[in-house]
Amino acid sequence: MNKVQPEVSTIKDRLELRHLRTLQAIRHSKSLAEAANKLHLTASALSHQLKEMEQKLGNDLLIRKSRPPRFTTAGLRLLKLADQILPVVRATERDLTRLGSGEAGRLHIAIECHSCFQWLMPCIDDYRQHWPNIEVDLSAGFNFAPMPALIRGDLDLVVTSDTSPIEGISYIPLFRYEILLALSERNPLAEKTWIEAEDLQNQVLINYPVDRQRLDIFCHFLEPADVEPAGLRTSELTVMMLQLVASNRGVAALPNWALDEYLQRGYVQARRLKPPEKNGLWSVLYAAVREEQLTSPFMKDFLLTAKDSCFENLNGIEMI
């Protein structure tokens, strides 16, 4: 007499999309508590979800008591699956939204930092493939005030670190990053581990040509210490700023991700700002959008695509 074999469940029966999103959130977090917060879960709910996944799959996914969380070999394999599947799901959701709404429109973007091209251009290239009927335009907000243009409707999105309250404007955080001081190896400050505000009294500070009240180096580092640099110089291009720095003609406060390539090549050096107990000078990059556009399918998808592009193309950034 033939015995009935027990039904063997497959991985698709044991995994849900929320499980894969959970693993991605853990990867970009310093602790499980931080990951739970990003997922809008309680710490106990996240812990229960992890245990449920491990029981269903018969594998431990995390190395216990590690901080930040570290994945086992099985966990890393599932992360790879998440990176393969979730973009496909997102693309399908885009297609269904586009088919259902027939959306077409305009997305005019301004950026306040040329370094943003490093991740924004791949983002726009990807976005155009999925929203071919959206007119995408890009400009630098150096020669005009981008926020009034956003309010008027001349622009649809501004990439900025300035979150001055403006009625009708929402600021969507993209990522958190550290601001470092770029300097030549010949600069005497290269001998220091940390840079204090007073160290810049004898330095020429090179900045982007924007109002100093929009620059964190002034608002959150120099002005609180009542320090003024010996001189100021501006440049619209990050590569030109770093050329001046490498020639020891000044220093520049720039995002860690903008400096990454130049530091790897030994082109310049970088030092953290403020003493160690204050953990450096950090800032957040935002997408400023008019509130009535936040629910537009093409705008919502651009914001998601932008965040994906940031973490795919930049080193040293953190999720919010």
Automatic annotation (TrEMBL):
<protein>
    <recommendedName>
        <fullName>HTH-type transcriptional regulator MetR</fullName>
    </recommendedName>
</protein>
<comment type="similarity">
    <text>Belongs to the LysR transcriptional regulatory family.</text>
</comment>
<keyword id="KW-0028">Amino-acid biosynthesis</keyword>
<keyword id="KW-0238">DNA-binding</keyword>
<dbReference type="Pfam" id="PF00126">
    <property type="entry name" value="HTH_1"/>
</dbReference>
<dbReference type="InterPro" id="IPR005119">
    <property type="entry name" value="LysR_subst-bd"/>
</dbReference>
<dbReference type="GO" id="GO:0005737">
    <property type="term" value="C:cytoplasm"/>
</dbReference>
<dbReference type="InterPro" id="IPR036390">
    <property type="entry name" value="WH_DNA-bd_sf"/>
</dbReference>
<dbReference type="InterPro" id="IPR037406">
    <property type="entry name" value="MetR_PBP2"/>
</dbReference>
<dbReference type="InterPro" id="IPR036388">
    <property type="entry name" value="WH-like_DNA-bd_sf"/>
</dbReference>
<feature type="domain" description="HTH lysR-type">
    <location>
        <begin position="15"/>
        <end position="72"/>
    </location>
</feature>
<keyword id="KW-0805">Transcription regulation</keyword>
<dbReference type="GO" id="GO:0000976">
    <property type="term" value="F:transcription cis-regulatory region binding"/>
</dbReference>
<dbReference type="InterPro" id="IPR000847">
    <property type="entry name" value="LysR_HTH_N"/>
</dbReference>
<dbReference type="GO" id="GO:0003700">
    <property type="term" value="F:DNA-binding transcription factor activity"/>
</dbReference>
<keyword id="KW-0963">Cytoplasm</keyword>
<keyword id="KW-0804">Transcription</keyword>
<keyword id="KW-0678">Repressor</keyword>
<dbReference type="Pfam" id="PF03466">
    <property type="entry name" value="LysR_substrate"/>
</dbReference>
<keyword id="KW-0486">Methionine biosynthesis</keyword>
<keyword id="KW-0010">Activator</keyword>
<dbReference type="GO" id="GO:0009086">
    <property type="term" value="P:methionine biosynthetic process"/>
</dbReference>
